[in-house]
Amino acid sequence: MLKQVLLLLIVSGCGAVAIAQTQPQQTIYKWIDDQGKLQYSELAPPPGVAYETVRKPTGATPGESALSNQQTKEREELARQEAERKEQAEKTQQEAQDQRTKNCEIAKKNVQVLQGDSQIVKTDATGKKVVIDPQQREVELKKAQKDADYFCNP
């Protein structure tokens, strides 16, 4: 009888060890990479990088569930921030393109006017209106053509 109890204890102990070894070790590492982005990985970060262990080996304790929820919230917040940055970058790019288009139209009109036969009146530094001479007209035309080339050609 003692042999049977001893055998039962040995077998159950070996079974417990076998079960413990078959459960995967799920350690999640959290760190900030060299570009300032928050990273999560099952692989350890590069040597010399400070990190934090987010999830310990499986055994599902109540604290781990809270960490998973926190991790999910952090990821959602990062995704939201990234979407906002992307939206702002697209908006800025569109505004720059709109301004470039407007400048192109202005430059084309200036070239057209300067190539015409009508008199060109310009305001000088003192605020007086002055008719420009042919030499000044040529200088202004070159500037306008340069502006048109810059703003109208991508």
From TrEMBL:
Residues 18-64 form the DUF4124 domain. The lineage of its organism: Bacteria, Pseudomonadati, Pseudomonadota, Gammaproteobacteria, Candidatus Competibacteraceae. It comes from Candidatus Contendobacter odensis Run_B_J11. Residues 49-104 are annotated as: Disordered. This is DUF4124 domain-containing protein. Residues 1-20 form the signal peptide. Keywords: Signal. Pfam families: DUF4124. Residues 72-104 have a biased composition (Basic and acidic residues). It comes from the Bacteria. InterPro entries: DUF4124.
